Amino acid sequence: MNIGFIGLGVMGTPMAAHLAEAGNTLYTCLNTSPLPEVLKALDVIVVATPGEVAANCDIIITMLPDSPDVERVVAGADGLLGNINAKTLLIDMSSISPIVTAELAKQVNEKGGLYLDAPVSGGQVGAEAASLTIMIGGPTAAFEQAKPLFELMGKNITLIGEHNGAGQTCKIANQIIVALNIEAVSEALLFASKAGCDPAIVRQALMGGFASSKILEVHAERMINRTFDPGFRIKLHQKDLNLALESARVLGVSLPNTATCQQLFTACAANGGENDDHSAMVKALESMAGHTVA
After folding, report:
1. Which residues contact 130 (CB under 8 A, 6 or more apart)?
2. What phi, psi does 86 have (nearest 5°)?
3. Which one of 74, 117, 122, 206 has the fewest beta carbons within 10 angstroms of its own beta carbon?
């Protein structure tokens, strides 16, 4: 089938490649970056605007950095809305505001189309391995239509609720847990290292106990080896925690440790680290301790 895919970043590129490798014809439009080489080899078709993507495809996927980016692509000048109709299924796999999601879904529905919010977790590694966790909000019928495509990109695929925004709410919860786990692993390795233990050996020991986690497995190794090239950038996790804290204020919920993690990310960004992998949160704690985990 013809599938539109807009947003060919670190995660979007491998996700799009999986769809093309399965025999689908992909249409996209570009902002500033050229078409990645891997997608050139898969004959991805580049058109001028999001509206042209919608004119050629009944299913369109967006994978963009933030709420304003999705709003521009969907509802801006030459946006998707201009060519959405009763055959269109728009799937937004970005991580954005549940409030913005609900408003965009309403606009798509008014044009006769269906909308799913389907943010993902798993980072670049999960995108490349087609093992992403996909959290979906929207009508069951739309979910069933999209499920074969989700299965090309992920493994843990869940319809969270039939209202648009449910997927985004679940993703915010995910990002809270991930941030707090990164903070906990950072503190633990910093403590052990400054006390004179080899953090690599400590990590290996903890992997066999109740403290084991994906963060300990993947990101603790990054902290020890100082490999902070982004799988998921600090500035993007800051954006997600902003969504968490803003939503919490509306709900009247206190998220004190989420706020602490946001401050640690802010300290990293203030020192030039906004494009580091989010595991580099450890640098903010290292600065306070005067000691480096290595």
Report:
1. 14, 18, 152, 153, 154, 155
2. -65, -15
3. 206
Q: How far apart are CA 135 and CA 120, in angstroms?
A: 6
Distance, in Å, from the CA atom of 203 to the CA atom of 214, rounded to the nearest integer, reads 12
* % helix, strand, coil for the chain, step of 5: 55, 15, 30
Angstrom distance (rounded) from CA 95 to CA 73: 15
* Burial class of 87 by CB neighbour count within 10 A (0 to 12, 13 to 18, 19+): exposed
Catalytic residues: 171
Q: 216-275, pLDDT tens digit by residue? A: 999 999 999 999 998 889 999 999 999 999 999 999 999 999 999 999 999 999 999 999
Q: Which token pair is 182?
A: 């990164």
| Consecutive 10-residue averages of pLDDT for the chain (294 residues) | 96 97 97 92 97 98 96 97 97 96 98 98 93 98 98 98 97 97 98 98 97 96 96 93 95 97 98 97 98 94
| Token pair in block for residue 7 | 């947003």
| CB atoms near residue 291 (< 10 Å) | 14
Closest CA to 154 of 127, 174, 178, 172: 127
- pTM exceeds 0.85 for this model: yes
Contact 137, 207 (CB under 8 A): no
Taking alpha carbons only, the member of 181, 125, 133 closest to residue 160 is 133
CA distances in angstroms from 229 to 166, 233, 274, 277, 284, listed in the order given: 31, 9, 11, 6, 17
Q: Are strands 2-6 and 25-28 parallel, antiparallel or unpaired?
A: parallel
Single-letter code of the amino acid located at 238? Q
Q: How far is CA 160 from the centre of its chain?
A: 17
Compute CA 215 distance to the chain's CA centroid, rounded to the nearest angstrom.
16
